[in-house]
Design brief:
By secondary structure, the protein is mainly alpha-helical. It is built from five helices and no strands.
């Protein structure tokens, strides 16, 4: 997937994170238990962190070119999967009380960890600087 795709995914994820945060703050306060509201807010917060990282991945792809494109796209895919599994399961847990979804949340966390690890490896390999030197 190209840079524009990951920038788009980051923007959509950021937009929906802001919407989720506003919904939690204004639509859910007083309607669900405070601990479930905290769970919902955690989902929105982690979604935003990783939406920003998706935008970074897109920006890096614009500069790095082919040298790191496959690896950075894997990073982006893991960020999207992590958002769906981690934040998504927290949203559903908070709204429905279905605690069985708690088993899915750590899988999303593992996706997030893997994405950050991949970014670290790309940085250590120096595959980004090859594309950046030309610009």
């Amino acid at each position: 997937m190209g840079a524009n795709f990951w920038l788009f995914m980051g923007a959509v994820s950021g937009l929906s994170s802001v919407a989720a945060g506003a919904f939690g703050a204004h639509g859910l306060r007083g309607r669900i238990a405070p601990e479930m509201l905290a769970v919902f807010e955690t989902g929105a917060r982690y979604q935003m962190y990783h939406a920003l990282l998706l935008c970074v991945v897109g920006g890096l792809l614009l500069r790095a070119g082919a040298a790191a494109s496959g690896t950075l796209s894997l990073c982006g895919g893991l960020l999207v999967a992590g958002t769906v599994l981690f934040s998504g399961s927290l949203y559903v847990l908070a709204l429905t009380g279905q605690r069985s979804l708690g088993a899915i949340t750590p899988l999303g966390g593992l996706c997030f960890l893997a994405a950050w690890a991949i970014l670290a490896v790309v940085a250590l390999r120096g595959t980004l600087t090859a594309g950046l030197a030309g610009g």
